[in-house]
Amino acid sequence: MNRRAQIIAAWCGPAICVIFSIGALGLARFIPPEISPTASAAHAQSIMIHGSGRIRVGLTFMLIGMSIMPAWGTVVAAQLRGSEGRFGVLSYIQIASIGVGSALACAGCVVWAAGAYRPGQLSPEFSRYAVDLGWHFFLWAWEPFSVWAIAMGMAILGSGNTVYPRWSAYVCFWTAFLFSAATGLTFLKEGVFAYNGLLTLWMVMSVFFVWIIVTSYLTIRNVQGGRFHTFHDPDAPAGPNPDDEVAVRSRDLPVAPLTNAG
Amino acid sequence: MAVTDILARLRAADQDPAVRLPGEVGIWIFILGDMAVFGLFFTVFVYERDDHPDLFEASRDTLNITLGTLNTLLLLTGSLFVVRGLNAVKDGRSRVARRWLAGAIVTGLAFAVDKVVEYADQAQAGHGISTNHFYMYFYMYTAIHLTHLAIGVCALIYMRGLAGRPELTVRHVRNLENGASYWHMVDLLWIVLFALLYLMG
Amino acid sequence: MSARWDRLTAVWGTLMAATLASWAIGTQHGHDHDVRRLATVGVIIVAFAKVHLVGRHFMDLRGAPVLLKIAFTGWVVGVPATLVTIHLLRS
């Protein structure tokens, strides 16, 4: 059971990439942004009106993607937890930061959805504000992600090559560093550091997905290599699990193999 | 020559006892990854500069090249100090090593002070991050670099602590080499940033 | 011991001298377009030559594994080549 849970959680990594991309690239088209930071309020309103249906469907996908992120992050923390000893502070930091980071990214999607909720009834300025606010939640608040990645990297180094290879810790640090390029978003309305910019949006998202794929691969390899536990409760009564008893037996089921009666 | 032959040769060369990786594989993944992204930074800057050469040139004129040069000299000297410090550690002279590393820390802090002075000058002149694209690149690139430097100074302080230990394990030496390699990366990224932001005319 | 000192000091001296030379050039203002274009190419090449020295002597890549040397040299050659090409084609 633990093995299955871990494998499912680890596969959430690639799943985030796929589900999120379907929503963001295909449906909501927030990547690449249809509404740039320099767009007029009227343009923002018009996009939110004409695309309100597909935008909200796409945001649902993005929301699901960002919501399974804690499952993915937790399996990594769980893999590392054992090597940390009794006061597993780095594991707890990871889990807390994933919670905050995921909540902020989800909040971005929620704000965008609310912006598309009453098409035609929201003033142009409000429509544009919803778009801006969503990007601030989604991308500008990168810090919890960096805290998470740094804690993960430190835990990997601390576990001394027994859980994840040491080099993967430096992939975490690299990711944590490069997230910082999103800081410029709030100061700029155009160029490579604006929320539709090459270095803010594209570079940061690419680095994030590279990190997820690399870590997912290593995690799945760990679990398949035996890094899981089988449940054993010493207080449980001996004997077979009552759930395993036969409850229904089909009368149609042949007892012996059928022979050709010809 | 087939790809497999090339790989076999590379592997054979790496098994040469004279061949040694400074630090560990991971720090080089980090360094090369960071250099790759900065390579993108540089390319984007040069590409856009040539769209608005006059605007970029006029803005570059407001930078204090002397302060920029001073920062380059500081980092180059700091890099030399770090090499000297590491060599002293390996020779078992921990007091000398600590002195070199303290010198490197001072160059790093002086760099930060210089940068803050420069930011204050620019802010005083009314040049902010959103004034034009030259300043956007200037502030963003130098701030990201300054973050790298701040972490590098922390690494140097840690390294100076290590250098004072009576005994060093393999792990300690590896961490010292990691820290030194990182610090040199901070240096070399600045060398290019300095050329592009301050000198490219 | 002393050989190591001499090499490092020479590398450091070269780097410092190159920086001061760029400073001297950078503070002068040539107005001729072609001169400026060439000066920029020179500035980029000098910068990456400095990076090469830092890598080879300070980062101690002289004795590093071949793959790392290839990757580093690839950056030191590839990035300036890209920058110079963009600059010459577009300015």
UniProtKB/TrEMBL annotation, chain A:
The keyword Transmembrane helix applies. It comes from the Bacteria. Keywords: Membrane, Transmembrane, Transmembrane helix. The keyword Magnesium does not apply. The chain crosses the membrane at residues 7-31, 57-80, 92-117, 137-157, 169-188, 200-220. This is DUF998 domain-containing protein.
Automatic annotation (TrEMBL), chain C:
It is a multi-pass membrane protein. This is Cytochrome C oxidase subunit IV. It comes from Protofrankia coriariae. Keywords: Cell membrane, Membrane, Transmembrane, Transmembrane helix. The chain crosses the membrane at residues 34-54, 66-89. The keyword Phosphoprotein does not apply. Pfam families: COX4_pro. It is found in: Cell membrane.
